[in-house]
Amino acid sequence: MKLDRLRQSFKELGAFTDKGEGINRLAYTETERRARQHMIRQFEQIGMTVRTDYAGNVIARRDGKQDELPVVATGSHIDSVYAAGEFDGTAGVLAALEVMRSLQEEGIETRHPIEVIIFACEESARFGASTLGSKAMSGRLDPAYTRSLTDKNGVTLMQAFEDNGLNLEEVHLAMRFQDEFKAFVELHIEQGPVLEKQGTAVGVVSAIAAPARYHVHVGGTADHSGTTPMDYRHDALLGGAEIALAVEQAALAELEYGTVGTVGVFSIQPGAMNVVPSAAELDVDIRGTDTESRQRVVTALEQAVSRIAEARGLDIWMDEISSEEPVQMDEDLVEELKAVCEERGITWLEMASGAGHDTMNMARFCPACMIFVPSKDGLSHNPAEYTSMEQLLTGAEVLRDLLLKQAVVC
Amino acid sequence: MKLDRLRQSFKELGAFTDKGEGINRLAYTETERRARQHMIRQFEQIGMTVRTDYAGNVIARRDGKQDELPVVATGSHIDSVYAAGEFDGTAGVLAALEVMRSLQEEGIETRHPIEVIIFACEESARFGASTLGSKAMSGRLDPAYTRSLTDKNGVTLMQAFEDNGLNLEEVHLAMRFQDEFKAFVELHIEQGPVLEKQGTAVGVVSAIAAPARYHVHVGGTADHSGTTPMDYRHDALLGGAEIALAVEQAALAELEYGTVGTVGVFSIQPGAMNVVPSAAELDVDIRGTDTESRQRVVTALEQAVSRIAEARGLDIWMDEISSEEPVQMDEDLVEELKAVCEERGITWLEMASGAGHDTMNMARFCPACMIFVPSKDGLSHNPAEYTSMEQLLTGAEVLRDLLLKQAVVC
To answer: A interface mutation test: which of B198, B252, B262 has the most A CBs within 10 A?
Structure first.
């Protein structure tokens, strides 16, 4: 594999961006459609057969010697958030392209066919819904839900499909079958600081955390901040502050499980200098790959709510916004990834993914795993997102080895 | 004094309101001007001489037998905030009217003249500046500052003065002299819960607290809420939460001094479910009548800022927005108020005012004190603001006795 060629791939794909800071290549836009066309040409140039499915997923196939065998697949996405970096999603797609180019150059043949998939609409930035392409491919897309989706300019997903020569009414035809796949592996940037801080080359992802999300309403009493003695108050901000700190404490106690808890949304009413806050609204996001650990944090949140409501005379209630199950990676694939790293002398760390990925959907219908490469300063969804070409190439080597083992060189 | 007449006074004055919930009688509006004209008529009907000064203060005078002696004054305001209640300010003005009516009916004469003053623009709701009338009267109004004031519709204070037949360039002529006054007393609703909760009829105000106000900026790091381990975070919300709780703790420790501390404004950035908060902005209001006690809370806030910045790796700075000195009431007047209550068998409580009042300005140039009457549920600046006519009449009796003692019945 070639470092300069990989760098050139980023340069070429990076040119497909709408105006604005960083990369702006939102799902199903004209710019993203042209980027997909560009990628299709790259795969076709190395002899792969490329098709676009009913969801807009691009599927580039390299035939196997026994082409009727289940496919060994890899892939990621090239759509982005607003003001994105260059690596989220594209790292996995361009590393896969580089692997395919090297197989082509070296004339390597495999028994199983290999596919590189560019999943459509992984990011929720445009339509508020994430991993639409992999959901469609794995038969997990609710048709009624997709028909309700609209972007901030009022363009419906249905219209966006039409603009791409697709028909939302046919999106269910993107579904594939479990026996079509032998394995799926996605290379992705970590989007967190752990690999860099630990000086480790590769993350072997053992599970993808799923968020349990709650809205917490804290109701207190608006009083004059000058005339209400401290012991007569029912200050909603202070109740909310204690809840946020209780979530942190509970998550810190689960450090060994990697469970995290965040209050990312916090607002108060009325928000005036001379009024004791009467209400606070919190959104809490609790994630982990260990279901029991995550549940302990949720329970701690519930207990904090009761305790603080009682102690402060506040009216607090919480609503579950969503609660998805964590997704475990295939154990055999995880072990094989570690073995590949060991063979090459590449440092690795078994870790969980805190963010969601297309692999979550693929893992529900075939053995799946993920390879992480370091993110500088843990930054992502940010123009400063950065992974060096050397770091990425190391990840690509692990990807190549795993694909070849699974597809069986002949 | 007559309960029904007092009730009728409220009914009549309450009719002067702009549309909206509760009372809307903002300073220097046409509605407030008409309300002032109405009040002028009431005072003139009982033989008082009424003039409006260069700031729009209404001064109703009842001659003394020795009319050259310094005046004994009382008063409050009739302008309101948006969606106000019926009692803030008006309680003091209408109680004074009822006292004057009773003196007239009973043919009581005093050596000193008595004045009832309706101060202009006590509330900051319209122009963002409070107690303009009493500041002007006590020579504490900065001309440059007044020329910069504008309401939310872009109307300047200068224009508002013109609309009232006043000239802002002449406002300094509203200033009076210390030797014109013997004493000033203001009756006002408590605007807090203490009298009601303690079942006490009258609050004898010993001091008016002044706020020390600070803006605190907490700078952290925006990270992905799923991919950033708990021990790698610099969460600005959590730092802000600890600061708010530290202010509460410090103020609770000063309970015996009545010092209060409030974070009434609290906002975070970016405020997204999946992003660790990168910044928090807090406005802190610390009030007390005991300067040392208030300073201890300010010091505790400063120490919390340092401690939390260090412990969490946050970048926190605080700016002083304002810091005024508390105002002590005149000791002799306070003792005389207590004696009046004792003589009448009226329950009283010596207390501080947490809110600011025109008396703060009057106290700087003549002996001054305040009488509080209970506020139901401590509510104020709210359509639900309530004090019963019986409670108010009790306060009016204390006011009358004090005025007569100071003005010397002959």
So the answer is: B262
